[in-house]
Structure formats: C-alpha cells, structure tokens
Amino acid sequence: MRRTDPEGHGHGPVRYGPPLPGQGLPLPPGLAAAATGAHTEPIGGSPALLDAARGYWTRRGLPAERDRTVAAPGAPALLLALTAALGGGDVLVPRPCAAWWAPQARLLGSTVFPVATPAECGGLPDPYALLETVRRVRAEGGDPRLLVLSAADDPAATVAPPEVVHETMEAAADEGLHVVSDETWRDTLHDPRDTVLLSPAEMLPERVTVLTDLAGPFLPAGWPAAIARFPDNDTGTEMRERVLDVLTGLGARIAAPVAAAAAYALDEPDEITHRLAASVRLHAGVASAAHRVLVTAGALVRPPRAGRHLYADLGSLRSALGALGVGDAQELEDFLTARLGMPAPGGHRFGDDLGALRVRLTTGPFLGATDDERMASLGSPEPLELPHVKSALSLLGSTFDDLRRSPR
C-alpha cells in the first residue's frame, strides 16, 4: 500500500505526533471572552493563573501552595522541562503511552524504556514488569530515574483500578523513581459515579509531580497551556526551580490571552463545568457506540472509560487487511485515515510494535463537520440518532463489516 505523508510532517516519532483527541466543539462564550490581554506573562505563570491551578487541585484533594505550581505553554514543553530538571537518566513509560511522552526524553538524549501494562488497563506499567525492567536496566549500566504514567489513559482510554495504582507506586518507590502523573484526562471519566480514579500523588506525594494538559478538560488544542504540581518537600522545591530555569531558557511563556482563558477555566464557573459534563456525556456515548462496532467486527478493544478516544487491536482481521495491502501499523493508519476520512494514528505512534495492527480512533470527528452540527450533537438528548452522527458511525460500521466478511 502506498505510504502517505500525514499532515506533511513525515513519519518520524517526533515530526508527526498525533495531537490530543480534541473536543470538536465550539468554545463556550465565556471562555472565548476571557481570552484577552497583550501583556507578557511571566515564565512559569502569573499569580492569577497559579492561584486558579491551586484551586483546581484543592477541589480534587490535591492542595498545593503557589510556590509548588508551574504553568507552561503546553504539556510537551512542561514534560521536557521536568525531564531535564532530573538531570538526565533513563525514563520508563508504559507501552503503549501518550504519543508526546517519549519524544521529550529522547530530545534530551535520555533512553526511554517501555514497560508492559497490566491486563486490566493501560496507562501505567505492570508492577512486576516495572521492577524487572529497572533491575535489568541497572544491571546493564543504565540509570532509570523517571517514570511517566497516567491513571486515566491516552491511548487506551482506560482508568486504572486503585489497587493497580497502589502496586505500581509501591514498585516505583522501592526503586527510588520519581513519578510524573499525567492527569490530563482525570476530568473526562465516562461514568464518574462508578469509576474511582486514584491520583498517584494521593498515595506517594513526596515522589509525584502531577501534570495536566488543559486541552484535556477545558481548552482547544490550539491554545497550549499546561500546569504542574510539585511535591511539598526539598525535592519538589529543587525540581520547580530547575523547571523554571529550563522554561526560561526556552522562552516558554504562555500567551497572555491563553493564560487568561486558562485561569477562567480552572476557576470552574458554571459555564465551564456544565459544558465539560455535557461534552463528556456526548463523547462517552459516541465512544460506546464505536466500541460496539469494533467488537462486533472482532477487534480487541478495552471498553473506553475516559477521554475522547478508543484503542483497537485489529490482529484478528490481519488476513483481510493483508489482502488490501495492510501489513503493519503505518499501513493501517494510512488505510483507515483514507477510508474513514478522519485521523487514525497507528499504534507505533504510541510506542507499540510497528508490526502490530493497532490504532487509536477519536470521537470528535463523529460529532459533525460544522459548528452547527457539533452544537446540535451537544444539545441533543439522542445524539446518536442525528443524521450526521449516524452517518459517521455507519461508515465506521460498513468499513469493519467489509473487513469482517472478507475471506480470511
């Protein structure tokens, strides 16, 4: 199958990083109105933005002082600064993991070691596999220092059970690792009444830095802003100072209008909380419908529990895909992107094997092609019955029905 050049950026692990799954919805009026200002924001965030971040975390049981928080223009810049602040060393990540985690470490010359995830969920490493990987790396002369994980995950769209978080954090503590907990998706639980999300910072506060990309719950992806919460100890103090040094060296300031909008959103006025709740319900319903289509076709897909995406293993359809010239994750990405008319990044973008037929699908494109259609999806009591949503899901269904019915 002819390989294409997605978005004109090539196929390199850094040059083409699939963006966070977007909301696909017009901005709430208050958020748009808040995006004002032409002044220069200070490195690390203004007092108003940091105080808004403190309030956001306090409402989630993670209180922090202003001098324990930092803001930056996007999560990748913040993770780059956090990794640099540790002074080198190797980085451990679950496999698969968010597409933007590993490139930050590699840009700094650190070696990234993927670790298998447990059967129950993605987003964090299996504790026994983590211990074995750390010991092997050290035996080979490596220096593992940082573990990046996420209890609510991209790409797997799972939420780690609290007992798994406990076991993984115990293993990380035993090996002296610092942990960055990416909590970008914590506010997008599909069923928050029946899903318990435990932040690693609740269990091991002295070793965990929390990072949140505000494009997860609040902001459009084109308005880069992220916040970090550091441990309340000497290590946290030193890390924050080093992070500020790195951000200063990069000139990494949040644009004033984006900072103002971020502060407004983090204060969580009714407009923001109501929009977030409605958006989560909408994306959860679409994700559930897409999940049914994929499972019916024979794909292996964990039920989505958070976020705006699904992660599918199409290994059972390998023969049918092979007849179409699809033999690896890049070719699967090319095929589904063209067939569905929406981004479908292959699993290799998330650190998975190129040879495995895995793909992340996002729910935003199912909501409509125009703002009017998307707002209709948001306001409808039965969005799956809207013609434009039904059409997009029907195309997904017909695509996988064709594959399922193909001779194997």
UniProtKB/TrEMBL annotation:
One of its GO terms (biological process) is amino acid metabolic process. InterPro entries: Aminotransferase_I/II_large, AspAT/PAT-like, PyrdxlP-dep_Trfase, PyrdxlP-dep_Trfase_major, PyrdxlP-dep_Trfase_small. Residues 1-45 are annotated as: Disordered. The keyword Coiled coil does not apply. The keyword Hydrolase applies. Residues 1-10 have a biased composition (Basic and acidic residues). Its cofactor is pyridoxal 5'-phosphate. Coiled coil: none annotated. Residues 16-29 have a biased composition (Pro residues). Keywords: Aminopeptidase, Aminotransferase, Hydrolase, Protease, Pyridoxal phosphate, Transferase. Pfam families: Aminotran_1_2. Residues 38-314 form the Aminotransferase class I/classII large domain. One of its GO terms (molecular function) is transaminase activity. Belongs to the class-I pyridoxal-phosphate-dependent aminotransferase family. This is Aminopeptidase. It comes from Streptomyces aurantiacus.
